[in-house]
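Mods, move this if it's the wrong board.
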Amino acid sequence: MKKRLMAVLLSLLLIFGALHLIASADFGDYGGDYDFGGGDSYDWGGNDYDWDDDDDDGGNYYYYGGSDSGDSSGTSGNSWIGGLVLAAIIVAVILLKSKKKGRGKAPVMPGAQATDPSTLRAMQEYLSVDPQFSESEFREKLSNLYVQFQNAWQGKDLTPLRPYLTDAFFNKCDRQLDAYRQNRQTNRVERISVLGVDLVGWKQESGVDVVIARLRTRIVDYVVDDATGSIVRGSNTAEKFMEYEWDLVRSSGQTTASGTGTTSQTCPHCGAPIDVNHTAVCEYCGSVLTTDTFDWAVREIKGLSQRTAG
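Not the wrong board. Structure tokens:
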């Protein structure tokens, strides 16, 4: 029995590892060919699998669909191999429990663990820090940014996004996009629709203000060969319903300028006037600009769940 279990776990490890390497797509490689995540934070129409099953183990699960820092490896630090081993064990447990319950549905891997709202302050309280802050305008801004992110990802050039991402997150996503450039493939993201944006809460840490937001979207997401135009994975018809968590930061002490969106500022390096809506580089001194100094920038994105229609 033990030998059989070990063989099953090894097989699942190899299979899951292979699926993980080929299945990622959409901006930051959070989506993919295989659904993930449950319905804990948003109901997409019912869970395919009851992960908790009356067990309480602290909720520290391996997740598929993107790590906290924008990498789709689904592990943190250098524990990629350990994460795959853990994933294989989780898959085995899910399969065994699914069989025991007699369900005919395919098991769905857990998504990223969402931030606990109890660790955040209510957004209404942020007005005491920034009286000009508007939740509605902020939600609209994030909705527009999501579309810009997907378009830039499809164009394989993240330069236009440079002001809206922190250095670390920009570099992480650009390295991920290198795989498409090198393989001469394009991840097409079409029929983009932002279904909702919720501001979960905010906090202050290490000299920055942090806002946690959740985006619910619908996309069609597939990868094509640049030379032939043929689809190498995914579907150009199947709709995916995605839920993400965005972590946005801005230097503490900054307040919202009049008007919506990002406004004209001065270059923090040379003092020249710039408009980060139109450029990511100061035309006077050549410095790369990011908005987290005076406006909000995305520090990380988590893939909470994916459901494919049909």
